[in-house]
Amino acid sequence: MPPYNAQQAKEMLKQLKGWIVEDGRLVKVYPFTNYYQTMAFVNAIAWVSHREDHHPDLLVGYNKCRVEYSTHSIGGLSENDFICAAKCDAILDL
Predict the structure, then answer these.
(1) Per-residue pLDDT tens digits for 28-86
(2) For residues 44-76, b (16+ Cβ closer than 10 Å) or e, as one string?
(3) Mapped to the 3 state alphabet, what secondary structure does the chain carry?
(4) Cβ-Cβ contacts under 8 Å for 56 (sequence gap 6 or more)
(5) What separation in angstroms does the CA of 44 have from each of 13, 39, 40, 59?
(6) Alpha-carbon distance 74 to 91, whole Å?
(7) Do 19 and 26 meet the contact criterion of CB atoms below 8 Å apart?
(8) Contact 58, 64 (CB under 8 A)
(9) Does pLDDT of 94 surpass 80?
């Protein structure tokens, strides 16, 4: 399967809030109040990622987490990246 082109990615972004495409990756920075909340979110993402067998790159700080998705096997963005991004957002609604 080929990666999404710029127009396809733009259309898919309409379904997500706060996500951007940066250097061919789907990216969002989640702010938190403290380290405990940040790590709870990171652990939840790890659990979902393991179940989906689709793992993001994470940059974790005291009160924020940057999440980056791309599908390495196709060298770009796929539908699965957008699905997993939506699941990250859903974690905060639990």
Answers:
(1) 999 999 999 999 999 999 999 999 999 999 999 999 999 999 999 999 999 999 999 99
(2) bbeebbeeeebebeeeeeeeebebbbbbeeeeb
(3) CCCCCHHHHHHHHCCCCCCEEECCEEEEEEECCCHHHHHHHHHHHHHHHHHHCCCCEEEECCCEEEEEECECCCCECCHHHHHHHHHHHHHCCC
(4) 45, 49, 67, 68, 69, 84, 88
(5) 23, 8, 6, 15
(6) 27
(7) yes
(8) no
(9) no
Hunting for tokens 């990622």 — which residue is that?
49
- Amino acid residing at 73: S
